[in-house]
Amino acid sequence: MKKITFLLLMFTSFYTMAQKNITIVPAPVELTVHTGTFHLSPSTIIIANSNAKHDAVMLNFYLKKLYGFSLPVKNITPGKAVKNIITLGLVKQGERKKNEYDMTVDADKINIEGINSEALFYGIQTLLQLLPVDEYSINNHRFEIPQLAIKDYPRFQYRGMHLDVSRHFFDINDIKKYIDYLAYQKFNTFHWHLTDDQGWRIEIKRYPKLTSVGGFRNGTIIGHYPGTGNDGKRYGGFYTQDEVKEIVKYAQDRYITIIPEIEMPGHSSAAIAAYPQLSCFPNESTAILPNTPWAGSRTGKQVQQTWGVFDDVYCPSDYTFKFLENVLDEVMQLFPSKYIHIGGDECPKDTWKRSAFCQQLIKEKGLKDEQGLQSYFISTIEKYINSKGKQIIGWDEILEGGLAPNATVMSWRGEEGGIAAAKQHHNVIMTPMNYTYLQQPQDSVDRDDFIPLEKVYNYEPVPEKLSPQEAKYVLGAQGCVWSEYTPDMDNVESKIFPRISALSEVLWTPKANRDWNKFSSELPGIYKRYAIWGNKYHK
Ligand code: ACM
User: Fold this and answer.
1) E-strand stretches of 396-467
2) Helix or strand (DSSP H, E) at 322
């Protein structure tokens, strides 16, 4: 008898827990919880007509991936009262906001309505976060979903995460995992940093040496810069164009746009190692500092084995511009994104200063100096990309020497670049390194430049210095993961979680709803959700 009472109590308490422990990240705009639950079971039917079929497929994808089962999908049967169903449907925009979905859960049915299939997908992500995280419920198939009503839509149109795959390479399975993490938290943009000094990572058919030579380095420094030694191991990898297509499709299915980054004019050592004519001094060997531990040949152009900023950059020659146009042609064919990121950061001017060709070009074009030449470089590329119907994004250094006419600025050295760009009526994406560079430590154990969770949570992408009119140019913000000291996906996960959840709330949830005390009190539940997602997170 005692045992039965105990079991009954357990059931009751799980029911109550299911009703009270609602943790949806990012927090929705409006949430009203009612009493009672909907019991989801393998006999629950998804009702979706043709325009919601893709979302039904995605719901089943995630049910299978996270819980090991999927549900039958049927068309809407008009006039028939059915129970135990999840309906997915598109509705007219009417009074609804961009990408709004509305969701109700009652005893018989879950209804998710979206103004488009992307909105429906966000509703599905919310539903997935209403499913249990505790072993008891999962093992006993007690999928009790609290009865509720939700109205929800994003605050910012650009909700991004970046990954540097040059310093360390991540295979396509890792990239798919990363994309799913973004999807779970309603991010809509993946900024793929594909080229840098330490490795060129995308197959370009016209220039095979970019990957056969530029995709590999002869070794990597051990420990922190400048390194205690060199591991002497050939390291590299790249994505074939077929793999890129597979990833683009995978992301598209999750309403995530991939913005490829092809760095220029700096951070181009790997491309120069493959095609030395891209340098103003093709016959000079790559400069390697005496204290840099090195593996293999020190002569000729080399893919970098250490971190930092390097002087040998693209020469603004006809050869280079033709090369970049050809590369960008293939890139723009692969990525449907409206934006192409062209880098533009950390380009030392020393090589251009001592190049007779560059000095002559500065005179010929009536430019002020090497900053003007950088601006000329970016504007030339912008013109080409615009001519193909696309837009450029660049790091905030592209402001120096004058902004290219249509460029969007990614403000990383703080917010000043973003503020300046918005005041010039250019679109801005905020990625200030002291808030959103998520490779930085989460706590003070290692370094003093750590970025604690609360700091990310309380980040506000719209600076107070902007007028309401100027603030409209802030499209959103982005978390970045630079991979010098981030060797694999487990390590990425230990760095992004839980700060990516905090950032998702910055980008999605209305400012007035953001509440650090609530968010931090929900962390135990959030960690349990991470366990369902199967990631290594930082506690
Ligand atoms: C950057 O972190 N160099 C954009």
Assistant:
1) 408-411, 428-430
2) helix 318-334
- How many angstroms does the Cα of residue 393 sit away from the middle of ligand 1? 13
CA pair distance 369, 381, nearest whole angstrom: 19
Relative to beta strand 391-395, strand 408-411 is parallel
Q: How many CB atoms lie within 10 A of CB 471?
A: 15
Q: Is 413 in the pocket of ligand 1 (CB under 6 A)?
A: no
Rounded to the nearest angstrom, the distance between the alpha carbon of 241 and the centre of ligand 1 is: 26
106 is annotated as an active-site residue: no
Helix 172-184 vs helix 117-128: crossing angle, to nearest 10:
90
**For a substitution probing ligand 1, which of 262, 268, 346 has the most ligand atoms within 8 Å of its CB?**
346
Q: Whose CA is nearest to atom 2 of ligand 1?
A: 412
CA torsion, ordered 226, 227, 230, 234, to nearest 10 deg = -70
Q: Helix, strand, or coil here: 307?
A: coil
Please name each of the domains of the chain with its CATH number: 19-152 (3.30.379.10), 155-192+407-539 (3.20.20.80)
Spatial contact of 485 and 224, defined as CB atoms under 8 Å apart: yes
DSSP 206: T
Q: pLDDT digit of tens for each residue in the chain (539 aa)?
A: 445 544 444 444 444 444 457 999 999 999 999 999 999 998 999 999 889 999 999 999 999 999 999 999 998 766 667 899 999 999 998 999 999 999 999 999 999 999 999 999 999 999 999 999 999 999 888 899 999 999 999 999 999 999 999 999 999 999 999 999 999 999 999 999 999 999 999 999 999 999 999 999 999 999 999 999 999 999 999 999 999 999 999 999 999 999 999 999 999 999 999 999 999 999 999 999 989 999 999 999 999 999 999 999 999 999 999 999 999 999 999 999 999 999 999 999 999 999 999 999 999 999 999 999 999 999 999 999 999 999 999 999 999 999 999 999 999 999 999 999 999 999 999 999 999 999 999 988 767 789 999 999 999 999 999 999 999 999 999 999 999 999 999 999 999 999 999 999 999 999 999 999 999 999 999 999 999 999 988 87
Say if strands 221-222 and 229-230 run parallel, antiparallel, or are unpaired. antiparallel
Distance of CA 166 to the CA centre of its chain: 15
Whose CA is closest to 264, among 215, 217, 200, 207? 200
Q: Has 267 been annotated as catalytic?
A: yes
From the CA of 111, how far away is ligand 1's center (Å)?
A: 44
49's CB contacts (< 8 A; 6+ apart) are: 75, 76, 89
Asked if residues 36 and 20 have their Cβ atoms less than 8 Å apart, the reply is: no
- How far is 487 from 170, CA to CA, in rounded Å? 9
